[in-house]
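Figure 2 data, in text form.
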Amino acid sequence: MKTIISNLNIASIASYLPNEVLELNTLSSLYGEKEVKRIISATGVERVYIANENETSSDMCFHAAENLIEEGNICRNSIDGLVFVSQTPDYILPATSIILQDRLGLKQDTVCIDIHYGCSGYIYGVLQAALWINSGLCKTVLVLAGDTTSRMINNQDKSLRMVFGDSGTATLITQGVDNIGFNIMSDGSGYDKLIIPAGGFRKPQSNQTSQIKYDVDGNGRTENDLFMDGAAIFNFAISNVHNNINELIEFMSWDKQDVNKYILHQANNFMVDYVRKKLKVEKELVPIDVKDFGNTGPSTIPLLLSHLYYKEKPNLEKTILSGFGVGLSWGSIACNLNKTNFYKPISCIK
């Protein structure tokens, strides 16, 4: 699905990091020094931020939103839409977006929705906000994206524990003068390549699903934990993402040589760089920011933007944002971020 939605502005982006940092080299006693060094070298991830046991995705997104509102001197009554993108909501029901509406002190006629997506979720969140604004339903929408992925990972699964971190972000989208292009794709045939098999209504948690099993690489997990077929996800990404982006650039009638930055979902260093090579663009056009954060699910794109560009912003008039992962799902955005305010990531607010 390709479309262009007009009269929009991505006004500001903020992010939040929990205060616990896991240095991956400290896991040598658990996984072995040689294996830890190998994984760090392959992924480029050296440390990740971990939410404490009482901290949820909504808490992290709340702090990011509060910072965005305060830094931008935003009137809360001007916000009339809230999108919460996360795979780790507060409850099965009610929707977490409803809780955040009250917690942030937004007016009661605020439209709220949860989007249960992961690594492609930020793209879907921006799309939802754009559609609401374009339809006339809303004028100003908060897109809150974040996950506590660490809660879904078994400590015995080194393949995931040494890649995923936690974070929350906030993006304010308003009426404006710019066009935003979208190219959205889905392939449900690969739903089982990135999945928590048990815990839903199709397969509730039980004593049987709670039994830990080890794969041939020595990674241990139960069916209640996150499972990723790394090879399948890698092949999916390198086969589809560059085509999705190239199609969008053509759809926007942009010259590829004029694209200022490609902001890709930060899966890991190797995957991002491989997609860059498939795109056939220079390294400086595709920033990588996984070293200190790892893969933070739906928040990787806004976290990268706020972390790298809060001090000095390059020309971002023609920027591509691209997310890909669970579902399988993938999508890209073509947008102008030159007028966007980026705020420095904040840590735990006492």
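Caption note: The longest strand covers residues 2-16.
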